[in-house]
Amino acid sequence: MINLDKLQKLYDSKKITNNTIINISELKKINLLRKNDTKIKVLGNGDLKFKLKLEVDFISKAAKKKIEDVGGSVVVKAK
Spelled out in words, what is the top-level CATH class assigned to the domain 2-76? Predict the structure, then answer.
């Protein structure tokens, strides 16, 4: 699980950019997830100030709304 505030901190520290598609392999590259993690869920705690592209397994309604409100997009993988 990851919250929007953590994604914002990664953006602020320049570990991710607007052009980065955030998915499980990208989060493993920056050591946010363990190597054996196979699914990702995004929750809506915190605020987001940048446009974001996400490919996730699960997302809360609040997180999806906040991402779309700043012009980002979310793809939820088929189960």
Answer: alpha beta
